[in-house]
Amino acid sequence: MENNTLSYFNLTMFMNIRHYHYLASVFFLLLYSFILSANLFMMLIISQEKTLHEPMYIFIAFLCFNSLYGSAGFFPRFLMDLLSESHLISRPACFTQIYVIYTYASYEVTILSIMAYDRYVAVCHPLHYHRKMTSKTVYALAVLAWICPACNLTVTVVMVVRLPLCGNNIQKVYCASWNIVKLSCVTTAVNNLLAMLGAITAAFLPFAFILYTYLRIVLACWKNSGEVRGKVLQSCVPHVLSFVIYSITSFSDTALSRQNMEEINPFVGHNVVNRISCHSSSFESSHIWP
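Given the sequence above, the corresponding structure tokens read:
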């Protein structure tokens, strides 16, 4: 029977770990504290050190801020659920969490894309770098990187909110749009099509762009000396590795959401979420301290 007035959802994937839930809570609290302190520390260094007021480091500061934003959308609620016997989440809070986590993931991709463009201009057009990457251009790209995912996710969330639902059990440790779509009482072909198009736009196009820019960088460096190639690799490889790791973990989380999670060890889902949430901190560290 259709129910358009569900006031809460039930997160069913929390395991009964008995007296170990306090130990788990301490571990994830320390992890969250590390993410907060590491990213705040990076942002403080970049803001205080004038020599780091360059496009690449400004983009790293944006990544740090985005990591704080995304972790705030996941960890506080997750920590509360670890210590609670009930795992009910209100409808507004659930859709808010969906919006925050999904925009965080989209922001990560778009910021990594403009960082790839920055490296491309620096390596392939070094004489025109300061003319092309002015402060106005940097902040215009940053605004574009924030606005486009926000608009895309707003449309997605609104479509999911309007679906009539026949249940309230979400097989996950956090709210996810696909898990709510599966509760719909009506056909979701339109939602699935739009979700596929949105995924292609949000993931594959930036991925293709990053591959293209770094292919151009490799070709440009091939003719240079070994010392120049070494400096370029030192600057670019951490970025490429971070994007590859991010893409793999994001794909894994998406693939898991399409499976019957009752037949999968919940710790698998937990690990994927945690890797996505905390990989940004190590990325920023590898760039500032090469």
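The radius of gyration is 21 Å. Try to locate this feature in the token string yourself.
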